[in-house]
Amino acid sequence: MDYIKHKVPPVREDRLMACQAYGGTCGDLSNDSKKGCLYASKRTFSQTQGCQLNLSLGMISSMRDAVMVIHSPIGCGGNLIQNAGINKVFQKLRQQSAVGLRWINTNLSEVDVISGGEAKLRQAVLKAEREFRPSAILVFNSCVPALIGDDIDGILDDLQKQVSARIVPIHCEGFKTKIQATAYDSVYHGLIRNLVGEDKSTKPAIIRTPEEELEHQEKISKTVNLLNVGSMSRIDEEELVRLLKALDLNVRILPSYSHPEDFTYAYEAALNVSICATHDDYFVEHFQKLYGIPYVLRTIPIGIANTNKWLRDIAAHFGIEEQAEKLIAAETAELNKAIEPFKAEFNGKTAFLTGGEVRILTTAELLHNLGFEILGLRGYHFDKYGEILLEEYMEDVPNSEKAIFNIGSGQVFEQANLLSKITPDLFVGHIGVNGSAAKQGYPIFPLFGQSDDYLGYKGVYEVATRVSRILRNASFNKNLGKNTRLPYRDSWYEQDPFTYIDDSASIAARIG
Ligand code: SF4
Questions:
Q1: Which of 232, 277, 284, 437 gives 385 a disulfide partner, CB atoms 3.0 to 4.6 angstroms apart?
Q2: What ipTM was predicted for this assembly?
């Protein structure tokens, strides 16, 4: 993969041929995905969908000592306001002197649509530099300047000569893609092009004695870049760092809540360790191409089976398999004893999960291990990384090939119909759809939370504890379900939930 020389990254529809619309079972999806034609499926009706600008902000607006400039009408990125509090608190968990979110919007108007928004962009970047003196200024391009043809790269190249902060253009215009996860590529593209590597014009090269260089190289040979995600809590990070340190590895954490300078020497690492292929494949593959750094990308360490796989993949790279097996044996022996009471409690209960493909498949395995039967899964999109994980999931979880698998982002009407038919005991969902399921009366367990544990061995116990508490008293949501209704006609619930998925093009492509 080598897109870094281009100013703008490709969208995921083109890069990964990702599927955005599907209704069937896990077994069907696995078979159809292997035939390679799922990308051609589409919707004949779409209720809503996410914008990649917002996900880009979710991923990187937590960067410390940086200013976000959103080049757009005032509404784009307006939801940042809900993050201001947690952004500051969670930055401080990493660096006491951190100041939290700083954000400027260029406030494009109708007049700017006619005359261009370039002057406002210049003004905003210079204001960011003058007022805050940040280490980096991240500029997010939105639909309007892209459509009217503002030359943001030309302007920012010119401004870079006038400001000391490193400027990072991020091309994340919402209209360009139906796959919101394209945002991760847009952000990494900007970061790799503009933050990685020393700025030799402002800083002298580091000179080391041969002994110092030897020591430095020794340190690099045991350093991993742990790639976190914006939805991850600090306690989750600490759990993963604890496990990696138990293998005698040094850990550098990127990209969320990082400092711009953390990227400067990010190429000084022996291994890139991802916790989510949907999030990181663009970064790790480019780092392998540009700097020869290998990577671990298979799974997210959620649940015992996937945490074990994650650790084994890392250990295999360093040739420390024996050390990893000892760690796994000690951790799982203690954990299995601790979760035994929950298994009895959850035995026979059913669950439905929705969210990113990697996270739902691994969380489903975790819940299965706790005694749940998984009735269905709903992924935002599906690609080659989901295909591998689904295969492993079906190996780990007996009879799972018969469970429902729906693919769709933002199609809450489809989810409501599906839930009315399969009626799980527990709904595990992403923000944006949990409210809808709650109005149908289902107990909700959030798929992620920035203040809670989900990852590693500790995460298994903590998830079990919280699910137990939710199921013990679900009366609030039950009452909500009895006293509210979703805005769909009864006739919709009588139809097939996948009525508006058109897979005729993919069937035609498959037949040839
Ligand atoms: S879709 Fe375009 S206009 Fe809408 S919020 Fe996203 S960037 Fe802004």
A1: 277
A2: 0.97
